[in-house]
Amino acid sequence: MQLINTKSVVIPISQSSLEKNTNGKLYGSGRTAIIFSNMDTNDQSEWLPIVNELISEKHMILTYDYLQHMDDQSRTLEDAISFVKTSGAKRIVLIGASRGGVASIKVAARSIDNDCIVGVVALSAPISYEGFVFYNNDELCKIRIPKLLINSESDDGADDTRKMHEIFIEPKETIFFPGDAHGTELFAKERESLVGKLKDFIESVSVN
């Protein structure tokens, strides 16, 4: 792993009436920021296997905590985006797993006029959960930036991944791995392949 400055950070939260800040970890610096959004485990450390592989002098990486247990964490992600922008980021890549993938897709759909978000990656992100639909077809069609969907062939949400791929407009790509690993569980067996794909994706959307 490269010797990149890493520090604990406090992220101001504008959406919650209960707490004013949440905790995060910022790796490196640069004009491109990669924001990792957690699964429902809300455990930043689950990203470490690939954060350590993706660390670069070219960009900063942010992981952060959710404050409350909610299915929709997209407002917290928006505050994380504001934080990296104040830290100097001009381009932002959103990467989320499961619940964090939902947040990343929702923010990308709302940010059609926000050109700082240049790419979105979702691992095992569902379209709906326990009857609650996170986004409709029109919202998914609004996402014009490059999109990368990743899942396992036998994950419970694999059909949602396939449906999203059909709905998304280009540019888009979907990758399925064997097995039933969900979200960051994929790192256990597929880390090398995942890291290679993520490096290529980040490089492709970070030009200019």
TrEMBL record:
It comes from the Bacteria. InterPro entries: AB_hydrolase_fold (IPR029058). This is Alpha/beta hydrolase. The lineage of its organism: Bacteria, Pseudomonadati, Thermodesulfobacteriota, Desulfuromonadia, Geobacterales.
